[in-house]
Model the fold of this input.
Amino acid sequence: MSSRILIIEDEQRIADFLQRGLREEGYQVEVQATGPSGWIALQHGTWDLVLLDWWLPGEDGIQLLRRFRQRNRATPVLFLTARDAVEQRVEGLDAGADDYLCKPFAFDELLARTRALLRRPDQADSLTLDYADLHADLATLRASRGGAPLDLTAKEFSLLCLFIRNHGRVLSRTRIFETVWGDQYDGLSNTLEVHVKELRRKLEALGPRIIHTHRGRGYELSARPDPPT
Ligand code: CA
Done:
């Protein structure tokens, strides 16, 4: 049976993105957008994991968490906090959160943490991705090529996971950007190109070119030689 995840998040764009992505991964997902409606869902639902935003209309996530922990200590809670809000993270963990993610976060990182919080011994096999001589471990967020470790940033790791999952397919910049950055691609910034270039540099230090550019279309991970452009 698939795991049931409750998302309490008032930013609709983030809630939609999380809901869509987690459903694609096979989870059952419900979204609540306010503190009071979130509390009702927490009280009356049966959840395997709760994704809880900090700032919510009606009642803050931290208050929900404190009350929830008075009656339920077992259900894992992953807090979504603003970037650089160290005191929020500490307060959240003190109040009983199991983990936190800083916004904006990469979907693959959220998935890795979701899996880690939901992990059961028989699921261990699904925590790694492999293609050709590439290996990525979603539990430890480590990757390697031909057995040699790759020193990747979180974004580069997310990019690599996306490429491995879709090897042999051309991924558009829009698709990559929305998946890894969780944001709409404006076509102006070169953030994506910079990260792909850096990931490529690290991969090619350990083997031949494996991320190919299709001019005007996007990128493809493939162990075949460079395709004509
Ligand atoms: Ca919020």
User: Anything to note?
Assistant: The CA atoms of residues 52 and 79 lie 5 Å apart. The radius of gyration is 19 Å.
